[in-house]
Design brief:
alpha/beta; Rossmann fold; Arc Repressor Mutant, subunit A; 2 domains; five-stranded parallel β-sheet; 42% helix; binds calcium ion
Length: 234
């Protein structure tokens, strides 16, 4: 059985370089898409959903470091960064932008392909990646439903299942008031017969994890007589 073809998004502004690279990668069995600047890279990334990104550091519009950060904020797709000088690698690695590997120009196609195959082997399988629900992000709180991960100010926070479900519902509806009934219904199920204080206890625990000062909630606010609202990023 042959492996499915991997799509690689090549982000590179030097046209002569791109042409030779594209031909070489196609010959190696990759599907190749090319973005010529950082903004185009982000647009194409969303449209194409590549299996791998080959990202030059020096780019017009938005540089490779910013593109890498932006892609990382929404996806775990492998990224190999391409630098012009080996000294740049140290800088890029020092910035901890989240790339999976680095390569310095000039490089041999064979070396590049070997690294590409290596990061693809380590990456989550394509089918798994595709089923991932969209990551919810409001301000500095980020929730990934499929990976069951919550980041608050870039720090991972562990949440029990019900707190996680509650936060997901609140973030998804950020800016809207959710009534107590709706929250209990959606998180505990329509047949829930327990004490309604359970909701308040869970809200309190969530606040202790996502609020700067849980005694003065700025994110999960109480709407008296109705329910709760997760505040949009201001
Ligand atoms: Ca460049």
């Amino acid at each position: 059985m042959t492996e499915p073809q991997a799509t690689v998004l090549v982000v590179e502004d030097e046209e002569s370089f791109v042409e030779a690279l594209s031909v070489g990668l196609k010959r190696e069995g990759f599907l190749v898409r090319v973005a010529k600047d950082g903004l185009e890279a982000l647009t194409l990334f969303d449209a194409v959903q590549p299996d791998l990104v080959l990202l030059d550091v020096m780019l017009p519009q938005l540089d490779g470091v910013d593109v890498c950060r932006e892609i990382r904020s929404r996806s775990k797709t492998p990224i190999i960064m391409v630098t012009a000088k080996s000294a740049e690698i140290d800088t890029v690695v020092g910035l901890e932008v989240g790339a999976d590997d680095y390569i310095t120009k000039p490089y041999r196609l064979r070396e590049l392909v070997a690294r590409m195959r290596a990061v693809l082997r380590r990456a989550p399988r394509r089918e798994e990646a595709k089923t991932s629900g969209p990551t919810l992000k409001v301000g500095d709180v980020q929730l990934d439903p499929e990976r069951h991960e919550v980041l608050v100010r870039d720090q991972e926070v562990s949440l029990p299942l019900k707190e996680f479900d509650l936060l997901e519902l609140l973030l998804f509806n950020a800016g809207r008031v959710l009534t107590r009934e709706t929250l209990i219904d959606r998180v505990w199920g329509p047949n829930y017969v327990g004490d309604t204080k359970t909701l308040d206890v869970h809200i309190k625990r969530l606040r202790s994890k996502v609020e700067d000062d849980p005694s003065v909630p700025q994110r999960i606010v109480t709407i008296r007589g109705l329910g709760y609202r997760y505040e949009r990023d201001s």
